[in-house]
Amino acid sequence: MKKSILFFVVLFSMFSACSKSKESNKEADSESSKLQQTMFYGGDIITMEGEEPVYAEAIVQADGKILFVGSKAEALEKYEGKAEEIDLKGKTLLPAFLDGHGHIYNVGLVSMFANLLPPPDGPGTDVQAIVNTLNDFKETEKGKWAINKFGWIAGNGYDDSQLKEKDHPKAKDLDKVSEEYPILIIHQSGHLGVVNTKGLELMGWTSKDTPNPEEGKLRRNKDGTPNGVMEENAFFMALAKLFEKADEEVHAKAIALGQEQYAQNGYLTAQEGRTTPDQVRSIIKEVNADKLYIDVVSYPDMRMKGAYDIMNGDYYSHKHLYTKKFRIGGVKLTLDGSPQGKTAWLTQHYHKPPQGEGENYKGYPIMDDAKANQYLEDAFKNKWQIICHTNGDAAIDQYLNAIALAQEKYDYENHRSVIIHGQTIRKDQIERAAKMNVDASLFPMHTFYWGDWHVESVLGHPRADYISPCKDALTAGLNLTSHHDAPVTFPNSMRVLDATVNRVTRSGKILGPEQRLSAYEGLKTLTSWAAYQYFEEDRKGTLAKGKLADFVILDKNPLKVDPLNIHDIKIEESIKEGKTVYKSN
C-alpha cells in the first residue's frame, strides 16, 4: 500500500493581500492541515453525478473523505507536494458499489461447503457430478473441517434447471455419498434443498403421514414418503439443523470470507438481507473486535423470534448511522419463493408445473394477507424501512396492498420500502409502486442464469421476456437497484452490470431487449441509486466533496468498452474511506 505524507502547515494573516491563486492555496491548506491526503489522476474518473456521465481529471481524499474533485491543474495547484500522487495509468475510478440485495454472512458460510454450482461457476452438470463432487469434498481438508464443525456434509448451488436430468437429486442419490453422516445440499435459489436418508431421519420426516411443515413443503415418492427434496420453510428448518453446532470460529470465518468476496468485487457497502438474531449477535461480536473493514447493513427477518428486540436495540438508527461499520438498516419480510424453483406466487399458472402439481399450479404464498398486513403495519408504526422478497406478481400485489393499508394509518412518507427481486412484476404494479414511493431492487442476473429456463419451463413467452423489467421501472420513476442476491450467485459486480445492460441468456439470446439499460444507468443502480435505497445518498454513491472516499478502480471503463465485454472487466482495487482493502495480484 502506498504511503501517505503527513504534513503540518501554519497560516499567518500577513498573507491577506495574496493573489487569487494563493488564496485558493490558503483555502486548501486550512481544510487539509494535519490530514492524510491522496490524489488520483491519469485515468477516467466517473463522478456518477447527473443524468449523463461526468468526468473529473483528479480527485483528492483526506482521512477517508473526498476533499476535491475537479481538474488536474487545480488539484496540483492546491495539493502538489502535500498529497501522495497516484497515477491511474488509464484505469477507471468511480464510487465503490453498494449491494442492492445480498447476504454477506451467508456468502461466507456457503464458502465452507462443496461448490455444486453449474458452469461457468462450478461442476454441477448432472446428478452424478454432484455425487462425485461431494465424495471428493468430504476427503479434503476443507471438507473434513466442515464435517467436524457442522456434523453434516454440505454442498451449495445445485440447480435442477441446469442438470442433465432436469430434476432434483433425491435422498437416495445422496446416500451414495454417505449413510453415516446427514447431508444437505442447497438449491441455487436458496429456497429449496435436498437431504439424504440420514437427514430425513434427523428431521423426523420418514413417513407418508409426515405433514408438511407450516409455510413449507416436502416433495414425495409415489408411496407418499418424503423423497428428500424440501421447499421453503421445510428447507429452512433443515438449514437451521445444519447450523446448530456452528461455533464462534465458524461465525467469525463466515464474516471474514464474506467481506473478502465483497471487497474483491468492489462492494464496500454490503447487505445481510435476511439476518437471524443469532447472526446479528455473531456480527456484533466481530464489530466489537474491530473486524469489519467494509460497511455492513443488516435487515433482520421480521418473522423470527427476537427480531423486534434487535430493532429496538443499539444498532438501529433512524439517522442511518454506523457503529464500527455496522448498522441495522430495517427489517426483512418474505412473501413467496423462487420462480426458477417454481415456488414463487403467481397470478397465472406456471408454463410447466413442477412434479406432482396440476396444470393450474401458481405457486403459493408464505403467509395470508392478515399476517402480511400486520407486519407492514408494525414497520410503518415504528418507521422501520422494510425490504420484502416478492418474486411472483401475486406476492407483489399482497405487498403493495399491505403498504397501502399501512400508509392510511401512519405518517411515514419517506419509507423507501423495497421490492426485492420482483421477477414477474407487471407494468401496472410498477406504476402503482412509483406512486407509493416504493423502491425496487431487481434481479436481471436471472436473464443469464435462468433466462432460457424461464422461457422453456417457468413462464414462457411473453412473461419470460419481462422478468426484471429495469427500463420500465426506471421510466416510471422508481428508484432502481440491481443485485446479485449472493450466495444465489457470486457477488460479481461486473456480472450484475452485464446482465442489467445486456440481458443475454446462457444460450446467447437477448431476453426482453427493450428492458436493457445503458451502461451508465446500470452503474447508477450500483452506486448513486443504491445509496438512495440505503438512505445514504448524502455520503455515498457519487464522487463529491465531503462524501466518503469509497472508491473502486477498474481496469477498463464500462462506458467505453463493447457492452458485451463488460463481464470481462477486472476489479483492480477497492478503497474504503481512503484505505485499500483489496488490490488485485
UniProtKB/TrEMBL annotation:
Residue spans crossing the bilayer: none
Organism in which the protein naturally occurs: Sediminitomix flava
InterPro entries given in the database record: Amidohydro_3, Metal-dep_hydrolase_composite, Metal_Hydrolase, YtcJ-like
Signal peptide location: 1-19
Residue stretches in coiled coil: none
Amidohydrolase domain span: 84-582
One GO molecular-function entry: hydrolase activity, acting on carbon-nitrogen (but not peptide) bonds
UniProt-recorded name of the protein: Amidohydrolase 3 domain-containing protein
PANTHER family (UniProt xref): IMIDAZOLONEPROPIONASE (PTHR22642), PROTEIN LONG AFTER FAR-RED 3 (PTHR22642:SF2)
Key words of the record: Signal
Domain of life where this protein originates: Bacteria
